[in-house]
Amino acid sequence: MSAVRESEASAPDPRPVKNRATPATPRVVTGMVVRTRKGGLSLRVQGRVLAVTAALGTALVLLMGIALTTGDFELSVGEVLQALFGNGSGAADFIVNTLRMPRLLTALCVGAALAVSGAILQSLTGNALGSPDIIGFTNGSATGALVVIVVLNGSMTQIALGALVGGLATAAAVSLLMLGRGLQGFRLVVVGIGVSALLLALNSYLITRASWQEALEAQAWLIGSLGNRLWIHANTIGLAVVVLLPLAFFLARRLSMVEMGDGIATALGVDVTRTRAALLVISVALAAFATAVTGPIVFIALAAPQLARRLTRSSGPALLPSALMGAFLLALSDLVVQRVFAPALLPVGTATGTIGGLYLIWLLINESRKSRA
User: Fold this and answer.
1) Is 2 exposed, middle or buried (0-12, 13-18, 19+ CB in 10 A)?
2) Structure confidence by residue, pLDDT tens digits, 327-368
3) What's the pTM?
4) Distance between CA 373 and CA 371 in Å, rounded?
5) Residue 2: helix, strand or coil by DSSP?
6) Region class of 299: left (phi > 0), else alpha (psi between -120 and 50), else beta
7) Which of 180, 232, 369, 371 is the most exposed place for a label (fewest CB within 10 A)?
């Protein structure tokens, strides 16, 4: 392997290109490029991105330690490690491996999935409001899952498939409504909000058709909760993350090129249509599986990618820092509702929704000021 330090400015292609999207502002890209000796594989590494990623990873490890050791039944780090390796006492093994670890892993995977889903959509649309919970993909996934829960009384696997079908159907509906107009701008947000409102009404109707017990369970699920999560939930979202996140990371470079505009991306050899379609499917699938496991959890997909970009000052979508940021925010929110509000059993969706509402107000004001300028 050899490392070469580069500093280059990527400027728009001067040749006329038909159907060019909104032209991107030229940006300076710096960092270290690590490549194989034959040049077949290369990777750009930016110092600040690397530092932020390491800091987020360290914060996640510390947060995991706090989540596993604190609570009504406190454990030492040694007792937690013994339980994880199968050498702990019966009580410690039950608390760590049955109660705390599945919930923690579910929170980490769901947070990462939602954050990467939001990062992809915000990058594709060029809009800070372009997240699955704003555009309606999350509500579409919730509709598919509710149909399986209320009508079919399905299993966890069937709920996950129902959420995936609902999310993809919503994405297809929004895409058809935006046909010929592209995915940029507030038009997509407005269309997505309209579709989301219709889906919320449909979800309410499904709840009214359920039995009393089913309606209570469905309503609690719609708030978004990590309570009573078992290994089947952790395994489901874990498998989705293991399959989908590497695909998203693989397409991250093409996503950065698409951000610069369709014309420039095409000139650089990117099939824009296929790239957008593949990334959209990955984004919807990540949001769908996350929703199937915990119910709709707002704010994470909206804020985590932007917080990661602000910290890294990255010119690209910064998918890995976004994933770590999303995992950290959701795990931290869940830890707060467990420890601060105990013994009340608050769903994590109440915490993320409260913070997310304030954040959304700030974001709308900020975007309004930018549009006026």
Assistant:
1) exposed
2) 999 999 999 888 877 666 778 888 887 777 777 787 778 767
3) 0.82
4) 5
5) strand
6) left
7) 180
